[in-house]
Amino acid sequence: MLELRTLYFEDLAVGMKDGLSKTVSSQDVVGFAEITGDRNPIHLSEHFAARTPFGTRIAHGLYTAGLISAVLGTRLPGPGAVYISQNLRFRAPVRIGDTVEVTVEVVELVPEKLRARLSCLCAVSGEVVLEGEATVKVPSRQEADPRLPRLE
């Protein structure tokens, strides 16, 4: 089980990185289709997918993007971070059985708004499949515990 650590805005620094690795299973893709209602047969039917340029079933693009969300919510910045925005560029398909390596890096900190801008990258066997940027609001120590003295 993943141990959650809490990073506050004050703990962050430009250049900090974290990530995760996830092998995509058929069950993951079917579950994502069930949750979202996106039952496009390119994700669920091997027969249908075989007739596409991909030749086989592929994972939903937003399933892969969801792995970025997992990093943001559990690792960097972690619990308490709230999405403000995310842009995504899908560069290649993710197939059932692929292992996606997700890397998130702090590229800018905006202290007056307690926001962090993060570069987000997903790769399979070294090939970038998804890239983008996220902006998240990160709680300060004082927000987390109002009894702490305010940093001015």
Automatic annotation (TrEMBL):
<dbReference type="GO" id="GO:0019171">
    <property type="term" value="F:(3R)-hydroxyacyl-[acyl-carrier-protein] dehydratase activity"/>
</dbReference>
<dbReference type="Pfam" id="PF01575">
    <property type="entry name" value="MaoC_dehydratas"/>
</dbReference>
<dbReference type="GO" id="GO:0006633">
    <property type="term" value="P:fatty acid biosynthetic process"/>
</dbReference>
<protein>
    <submittedName>
        <fullName>MaoC family dehydratase</fullName>
    </submittedName>
</protein>
<feature type="domain" description="MaoC-like">
    <location>
        <begin position="21"/>
        <end position="108"/>
    </location>
</feature>
<dbReference type="InterPro" id="IPR050965">
    <property type="entry name" value="UPF0336/Enoyl-CoA_hydratase"/>
</dbReference>
<dbReference type="GO" id="GO:0005835">
    <property type="term" value="C:fatty acid synthase complex"/>
</dbReference>
<dbReference type="GO" id="GO:0004312">
    <property type="term" value="F:fatty acid synthase activity"/>
</dbReference>
<dbReference type="InterPro" id="IPR002539">
    <property type="entry name" value="MaoC-like_dom"/>
</dbReference>
<keyword id="KW-0456">Lyase</keyword>
<dbReference type="InterPro" id="IPR003965">
    <property type="entry name" value="Fatty_acid_synthase"/>
</dbReference>
<dbReference type="InterPro" id="IPR029069">
    <property type="entry name" value="HotDog_dom_sf"/>
</dbReference>
